[in-house]
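Q: Structure tokens for this one, please.
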Amino acid sequence: MLDADFYLADTRNMGAKKVRSYSKYTDEALALLGNLIQLERKTRRMSENDLADRIGISRATLRKIEKGNRSCEVGLVFEAAVIVGVPLFREDSNLLSMDAARVKDKIALLPISIRKNKSEVEFDDNF
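A: Here is the predicted structure, written as tokens:
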């Protein structure tokens, strides 16, 4: 089970707390991105406070990003990467825009909603 959802009892509000299990690949990718952000920040001789202020977050949140913490908002992680110069997709913003438009065009050709196929009832007409 790589991406299964589990539900545990939350005794504080008697509701259900959703706990996710992540694949090893996801954890490694997050750690790599966090390390790249930290490396570039230090290479540029930028303090944690400087980068955190530019993103508009606390130092504690920046430390979580640099450690590859799963709970950080993806937008904040991407913003940190962009500010320190870690390439995410394409370094040229024009090429990135073209890629985004091409993918959006492909999505437009696909069905709006996807439904599971209903299992067909088998009839046995042999008497």
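A few notes: The longest helix spans residues 24-43. Strands lie at 5-10, 15-20.
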